[in-house]
Amino acid sequence: MKNSIKIINNYEYKKLFLPDVSEHNLFNENKIQVYRIENYLRSILMPVIPYRTEFNFLIFVTKGSLTQHLESASYTLTENQVINIKQGNITATLAISDDVEGFFVVYENEIVTDIELGINDIKFFNSHPFTTLKPHVAHWIQQMLMLLEEELFTEGRVMEVCISMMQCILLKVIKSDIETKAPMSRQLDIAFRFREYVQKFHIDHKNVLFYANLLHISENYLNKCVKEATNKPPKQWISEISILHSQILLQDATRDIAGIAFELKFQSPSYFTRLFKKITGYSPSDYRKHKFMAG
Q: I want to staple 64 with a disulfide (CB 3.0 to 4.6 A). Which of 42, 83, 97, 112 is the partner?
């Protein structure tokens, strides 16, 4: 089933969403790539339908605003704010202001795995994708990104230097974010692991008890932890993640809506339609027309 949800690669992403990208940058396959939001992302045609990527990317806004959908939430970034999108996350750019400026940074998984981080740091980074940076930290990161950009575009660039710089940038974001938030509590850790499991198993398992058993806790305790950590009950997370995956399948106009409902193992097409409308405000057929068949 996972293969039916298309994950776009670096080249496909640039072809779809960076219309002004040069031929050189289009075929750029470096482990790290830096693009200015004002030079590329402003040209994106809205609305963008949800997608998943084979790479990680970080968006850092220095001026204006940008709204990014990530999994089942939307984040509006303004000056000195950062969002980190993990490989495989469901995401979409929803809105960009005319005056937006900043950086769009592509990086491969190994850039993160090579950083000396404790397990709690990594979990924290993954469970807190959106960060507001203090002005002095934002200035430091902006300067580092400009140096990284310069090195990447130098003919005799040294990729080891670029990788070290990117790791410093990520580490600075992680550590400054941890400083502004409380250490990861048991509730937050459980909520993080619950959402990771839902991403893997939501098609076959839509009941909360299954995830409680995986986590070796009671269903009541799982409900309590997830609701306290995220302000949403587990059942809502399961429903929203399942509907997000259906939105990706709906991009394929040849797919039958009833077939999508059965593929994602909903009780019935009518139940799927009701749940879809409750979460998105559209029926599946109206969503398909409104989002990407109108033109």
A: 97
DSSP letter, residue 292? I
Domain match, 191 and 170 both:
no
**155 shares a domain with 30:** yes
Residue 197 CB-half CA count within 13 A: 21
For the stretch 60-69, what's the b/e string if a residue is b when 16 or more beta carbons lie within 10 angstroms of its beta carbon?
A: bbbebbbebb
Strands 52-53 and 66-70 come out as unpaired
What CA–CA distance (Å, rounded) separates 128 from 107? 18
Question: Tell me: the pLDDT tens digits for 64-107?
Answer: 999 888 887 788 999 999 999 988 888 888 888 889 999 999 99
Cβ neighbours around 260 below 10 Å, total: 22
**What is the C-alpha to C-alpha distance for residues 89 and 50, in angstroms, rounded to an integer?**
10
- Identify whether residues 9 and 139 lie together within a single domain: yes
Does pTM surpass 0.85?
no
Domain limits for position 138: 2-180
